[in-house]
Amino acid sequence: MHMRKKEATILLVDDDDDILFSARLSLKKHFTKFITTNNPKTILNLIASETVDVALLDMNYHRGFEDGKEGLYWLKQIKEISPETTILLMTAFGSVNLAVEAIKQGASDFVLKPWDTEKLYASVLAGVELARSKRKNTQLEAIQNNKNKDFLQKTEHLIGKSPAMTKAISMLQKVAPTDANILILGENGTGKYVFAKEIHLQSHRKNQPFIHVDLGALNENLFESELFGYAKGAFTDANKDSIGRFELAKGGTIFLDEIGNLPLHLQSKLLTVIQNRKVTRLGEAIERAIDVRIICATNADIHKMVEDQNFRQDLLYRINTIELNLPALRDRKEDILLLAMHFLKQMSAKYRKTIQGFTKEVIQRLEAYHWPGNIRELEHMVERAVIITEGQELGTDDFYFSTDKSTPIATDNLNLEATEKALIQSALDKHQGNMSRAAKDLGITRTALYRRLDKHQL
Ligand SMILES: Nc1ncnc2c1ncn2[C@@H]1O[C@H](COP(=O)(O)OP(=O)(O)OP(=O)(O)O)[C@@H](O)[C@H]1O
Fold first, then answer.
1. Is 298's C-beta closer than 6 angstroms to any atom of ligand 1?
2. Which of the listed CATH numbers 3.30.530.20, 3.40.50.300, 3.40.50.2300, 3.20.20.140 matches domain 163-325?
3. pLDDT digits 0-9 by tens, 375-419
4. Candidates 1.10.8.60, 1.10.540.10, 1.10.150.20, 3.30.70.890; correct CATH number of 329-398?
5. I want to staple 33 with a disulfide (CB 3.0 to 4.6 A). Which of 9, 89, 240, 373 is the partner?
6. Atom from ligand 1 closest to the CA of residue 375
7. Residue 190 alpha carbon, nearest atom of ligand 1
8. How far is the CA of 379 from the centre of ligand 1 (A)?
């Protein structure tokens, strides 16, 4: 009977090379990966640098010492570094008491030497399943602690038929199944998150975690502990070991959002991690391998940042194997109505209303508007309109275009007054009516701004 091998990493530790050889022989047609060592001192490195499902550990080393103390010692060490790894002990007939002691200390089962091949296989298989479910639970638990809902997957449907969007979607489909690092560029609300998630869902990692980290929201002091984790006692409040986001994403995808906001000194830390594919928890000396796909996103002009030496070029090269540009909504007018209809359907269902569509006038305005907040803004606008409308169709009264009065600065009209008015209006839009910020951006005082608002009747 031909069986498919199970994806699993098995670590075999025995100081007798013959035993290593025959254990491997017994198991190799069932599992994909084996690591063997006859030197227990290498166990810790191996276990930290690989995701080991099952460790088959000999109880007795150095011929002559049969008390098994050393086996127990290594057992404890493995448990500490990789609590999810299932540990099976190999022990000679007659040391059953020792095996019982080992199980008390966290081993899952023991295998008597010489073993029965079928029994050995059954124990290892059960061990692999156990490790899997434990790993899933730890990840889930950690994710719940982080209030990170990204683990609960949901497929987003990408809407868009414009050439720019079609191109972005076909690029996504091409690169998603590869393990290439991807940098997604686009203004706020253009769908960077949705794209990152979709790349993950269309990759072979789809059943593993997708971890979203908003670097823009991450306090600088927390950067390392959040991303790389920490050991108990690493700092005052570290009262227990904590797993970092990179480790959480093990086997899956990490989405580093707003990468452009990362200060230079943290950029170099991130670079080291990406280069070595290893993380070290704060306060710990063990390097842990991370098998993680990296997707980054930013709305900043990252190439300009590199030019201005605000972003490390070597880091950019690491993260932008593939660059995906998401077009602004104003540059793909064909998609506006399509998206508006999509949101209309969604929101009508949500608010239990039956609304047929948009008036002609509204459609024209939607298509002419410059959408500084892109798709997110459109979504909010439609939601709001659905809530307040009393009709069957959404009309101009149901919409509030924040820039109704604005005229984009046109170079064919260089009239100073008109340009000043347009500039002020864009500053107000940009800062959503926040006077202090708009004034600061314009380089004038708040009082001066109020005066001009009066003057231009804004
Ligand atoms: N192609 C699309 N089809 C349908 N909805 C979309 C599409 N792209 C984005 N959206 C919706 O638009 C909103 C904004 O998307 P998203 O959060 O991915 O943008 P973003 O670029 O990550 O924004 P920010 O930079 O502000 O974080 C979301 O509600 C998302 O569901």
1. no
2. 3.40.50.300
3. 999 999 999 899 888 888 999 889 887 654 444 444 555 667 777
4. 1.10.8.60
5. 9
6. 12
7. 21
8. 9
